[in-house]
């Protein structure tokens, strides 16, 4: 990722009761000739066509790590992390859901307006990105570094229905 890339990140939880999935939304803009989500399919993510029925394999080479101070690191098949030790506001059950599944659903798109505070707007833009072929995602293994929870075993992926 080039130094002039701009990323916005928002954490969310999808689902209800005991069927919750930790979600990490990433909005990116770069000077690449193709949209960032399309470029990331070459790095192990898959295109998402329907946010109401997300079925994704485990993204090889990707991981979400949480440090003891709660900062997130998003690793990808590159020499440097995509996000490195970043403080991200998360809903209270986000960590519980990530621990339960040992997986975070990572969705990357352009023009998601994640800086805006309106979750309904985010959903509308996620749906538009998915239908336009500009939303990529993956089931990304989750680990808490230095807090006694070992790395996940890779698992079969994640399925989220809205």
Write a structural description.
The protein is an alpha+beta fold and 162 residues long. The protein has one domain (6-150). It contains three helices and ten strands, in the order ββαβββββαβαββ. The chain has helices at residues 36-41, 94-101, 119-131, and strands at 6-16, 19-29, 46-47, 53-56, 63-66, 72-75, 83-86, 103-109, 135-144, 158-161. The strands form two sheets. Strands 1, 2, 3, 5, 6, 7, 8 and 9 form an eight-stranded mixed β-sheet that branches. A two-stranded antiparallel sheet has the order 4-10. The model is unreliable at 149-162 (pLDDT under 50).
Summarize the SSE layout with pairings.
Blueprint: E1 6-16, E2 19-29, H1 36-41, E3 46-47, E4 53-56, E5 63-66, E6 72-75, E7 83-86, H2 94-101, E8 103-109, H3 119-131, E9 135-144, E10 158-161
Parallel strand pairs: 2-8, 5-9
Antiparallel strand pairs: 1-2, 3-9, 4-10, 5-6, 6-7, 8-9
User: Mind summarizing the main beta sheet?
Assistant: 8 strands, mixed
Give the end-to-end Cα distance, rounded to a whole number of Å: 31 Å
| Count of separate structural domains | 1
Mean pLDDT: 85
Binned, the helix content reads: 10-25%
Low-confidence stretches: 149-162
Helix count? 3
**Count of β-strands:** 10
Shape: globular
**Helix and strand run:** EEHEEEEEHEHEE
Helix-strand category: alpha+beta
* Strand content range: 35-45%
Please tell me how large the radius of gyration is: 14 Å
Explain briefly what this protein structure is.
With about 160 residues, this protein is an alpha+beta fold. It has helices spanning about 35-40, 95-100, 120-130, and strands spanning about 5-15, 20-30, 45, 55, 65, 70-75, 85, 105-110, 135-145, 160.
